[in-house]
């Protein structure tokens, strides 16, 4: 029984570790916009130039829409997150503050939760996060993009092409975020 408990604890630690821990690559990103390998934590430009995926997501009213419809030909910063992801929850208030600033791309938080949309909206309301509730219950966006770490934030240009992505949590009001957002200009 003890071995079974130990094995279950190890599996649980591995599953949550990808969402909660920073790797050495993330500390490099804090030294000044260092690139991470594709799929790892930190800044990644290996997917630059790829078109935003054309998949259906739900808007705040539960109606189907798409990233391109939301962007409307303007730059779009898409944050993939989930209510069960501690780093995602830590990061959301900084994204909310970034969205309120002028001169930045439109910011959307795209929930990867399978819960009913009102549950996700209530989660954001409870934390006083003013970002509109978008949801990808099928995780079609993260699947199309090959995202393996939450949170992951992707910047698309006005042409709908990826500029960069940042895997892992980041203070979007801090100096590092300002550096990588400046790369889009």
Automatic annotation (TrEMBL):
Region entry Disordered, spans: 21-48
Domain called Thioredoxin: residue spans: 46-185
Domain of life per record: Bacteria
SUPFAM superfamilies from the UniProt entry: Thioredoxin-like
InterPro entries: Redoxin, Thioredoxin-like_sf, Thioredoxin_domain, Thioredoxin_ResA/DsbE_sf
Annotated PANTHER family: THIOL:DISULFIDE INTERCHANGE PROTEIN DSBE, THIOREDOXIN-LIKE PROTEIN HI_1115
Protein name: Thioredoxin domain-containing protein
The organism of origin for this protein: Sphingomonas rosea
């Amino acid at each position: 029984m003890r071995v079974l408990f130990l094995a279950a604890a190890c599996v649980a630690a591995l599953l949550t570790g990808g969402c909660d821990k920073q790797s050495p690559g993330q500390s490099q990103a804090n030294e000044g916009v260092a690139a991470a390998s594709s799929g790892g934590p930190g800044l990644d430009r290996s997917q630059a130039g790829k078109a935003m995926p054309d998949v259906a997501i739900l808007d705040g009213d539960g109606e189907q829409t798409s990233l391109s419809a939301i962007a409307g030909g303007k730059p779009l910063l898409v944050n993939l997150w989930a209510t069960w992801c501690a780093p995602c929850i830590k990061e959301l208030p900084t994204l909310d503050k970034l969205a309120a600033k002028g001169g930045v791309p439109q910011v959307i938080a795209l929930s990867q939760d399978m819960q009913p949309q009102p549950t996700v909206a209530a989660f954001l309301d409870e934390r006083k996060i003013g970002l509109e509730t978008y949801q990808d219950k099928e995780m079609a966006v993260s699947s199309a993009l090959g995202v393996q770490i939450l949170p992951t934030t992707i910047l698309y240009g006005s042409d709908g092409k990826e500029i960069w992505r940042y895997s892992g949590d980041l203070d979007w009001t801090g100096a590092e975020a300002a550096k990588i957002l400046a790369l889009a200009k």
